[in-house]
Amino acid sequence: MSTIYLIRHGQASFGAKDYDYLSELGMQQAEILGKSLTDRKQIFDAVYQGTLRRQKQTRDQVCQCFNKQGLFFPKPVTVDFFDEYDAIAVWQYYIPEITADNPVLKQDLKTAGTNKKAFQKLYSLVIDRWLSDQHNSPKCPVWKDFKDCVISGLKSVINNHGSGKNIAVFTSGGTISVIFQHILDLSDKKTMELSWQIMNGSVSRIKYTKDNISISSFNETAHLEITGNKKYLTYR
Asked: pLDDT per position in the chain (236 positions), as tens?
């Protein structure tokens, strides 16, 4: 039996011009994770990461912790299978429709860049429409295509590594939730609701054999909680 560690990136730069960049807090979360892994002498046989900067930066912080302790850390394999869906494209495609249907929401839109509650209210509506739509526009990704890509990547990792392996995957919340959907046969709506519970810098683990995939843990944050500082417990 082998274990895949699904690691969500640290906090990105919400509200900034470039979201795909770890905030200072995100860097700290990744470093705390790295120290936790090295304290228990965790060894990985392979490391994968998506192509997004926040995923790579999280991996880099963890790698530095391994290097400082003289522990082996494999060269990462970068694949777009583990990227997050393009949330900006989805938002830009659907938000005009949603605010046109309900003009009252335009007030929330004015503060969405800095007000996380207003953003989540609108984002939930955007995602609901995205999941149910069967559009065919090059301006917006298709939910089914995203899911198929993630599961293809998961199967590729499993096929590439035999039994008794420990594999780290540095990825994002949407990607992790789709993998759990695949294992638990969740609805699309429940899958997205699950993704919003996955915390920055968290670890979820799945185990696999030749014939089976199962869940070992979900959304582990003990390494962040043990600091006693609630600021490290973030979702976005």
From this structure: 999 999 999 999 866 667 788 999 999 999 999 999 999 999 999 999 999 999 999 999 999 999 999 999 999 999 999 999 999 999 999 999 999 999 888 888 888 878 888 888 999 999 999 998 877 788 899 999 999 999 999 999 999 998 999 999 999 999 999 999 999 999 999 999 999 999 999 999 999 998 899 999 999 999 999 999 999 999 98
- Residue 45 burial class via C-beta count within 10 angstroms: exposed 0-12, middle 13-18, buried 19 and up: middle
Nearest to 194 by CA among 211, 208, 222, 174: 174
Query: How much is the pTM?
Result: 0.93
How far is the C-alpha of 91 from the C-alpha of 56, rounded, in Å? 24
Domain ranges within the chain, ordered by starting residue: 2-85+151-232, 87-132
DSSP string spanning 133-150?
-----TTS--HHHHHHHH
CA distances from 160 to 5, 49, 110, 154 (A): 15, 15, 47, 10
**One-letter amino acid of 7:** I
| DSSP sequence for 162-211 | -TT-EEEEEE-HHHHHHHHHHHHT--HHHHHHHHTTPPTT-EEEEEE-SS
Residue 220, H or E segment? strand 213-220
Domain 2-85+151-232 has CATH 3.40.50.1240: yes
